[in-house]
Amino acid sequence: MPDTEMLELLKQRLQRKQYKLTMQRRTVLEILLEHPGEHLSAEDVYGALRDKSSDIGLATVYRTLELLVQLGILQRMEFGDGCSRYEIADIEKNEHQHHHLICIKCGKVTEFFDDLLDELEADVAAKSGFKITDHQVKFYGYCKECQDELENK
Fold first, then answer.
1. 13 burial level (CB within 10 Å; 0-12, 13-18, 19+)
2. Which of 16, 50, 60, 104 is the most buried (most CB within 10 A)?
3. In the chain, which residues have pLDDT < 70?
């Protein structure tokens, strides 16, 4: 069962932008809230909806995800495999998104929460006159399991 407090916060964000929390939007958000730390594709969301006997179509899932990205409620991520993935965006406006470690062998994605780029961001902003509001970092390499597998060959 998704976090009702988080669902209420997301509902308020929609309302502030003059949108309603329709049944379809709520159901898609519930799926994402039920899978914290996962990076779900539209097809993953659709599959989870089908498992729950929902009659929401794949086209509706795509439209809903894109709207929620445009409204800043979801974050769309690309991990280099040609598939967009989605997760709930951080609620705090001044909080950086977390970063990702992506295994190039198995495709596993791990979240990384340390933000070591504040000084670099300030330096770039000062030198360029560019107002930076956020950044994303993706590290590509091999997860521990794939490293062990490669070493044992």
1. middle
2. 60
3. 1-2, 90-98, 113, 115
Cα 34–Cα 27–Cα 137 angle in degrees, nearest 5: 55
- HEC readout, 90-142: CCCCCCCCCEEEEECCCCCEEEECCCCCHHHHHHHHHHHCCCCCCCCCEEEEC
What is the token pair recorded at 20? 């309603």
Distance CA 107, CA 79 (A): 9
* Contact yes or no for 68/29 (Cβ under 8 A): yes
User: The tokens 């993935």 sit on which residue?
Assistant: 85
Kindly provide the b/e burial profile for residues 62-99, where b requires at least 16 CB atoms within 10 angstroms of the residue's own CB: eebbebbeebebbbebebeeeebbbbbbeeeeeebbbb
Strand-pairing partners, residue 99, are 112
> What is the pLDDT at residue 95?
53
Residue 38: per-residue pLDDT:
82
109 beta partners: 102
Residue 75: the pLDDT is 83
